[in-house]
Amino acid sequence: MLSSVLRSQRAVRVNIEIMRAFVRLRQLLSSNAELARKLKTLERKYDAKFRVVFEAIRELMVPQDEPDRPPIGFHSEA
Fold it and tell me: What is the pTM of this model?
């Protein structure tokens, strides 16, 4: 929010990059939804022999949990 209020060149560039990141995120989510829809159509079209394949593809589409990492930066022992 601060980058949209400030008027420096750096703030403008940061604001543009933030907007681009949100656009890419929206495109990624919509393409994933489209992929899921196409997969469901294919699943209806073919018989139960391919059910295992479709289930494996669905599992690959689920985002993986990121491992716990220690916080980044300087931390005092206070």
Answer: 0.41
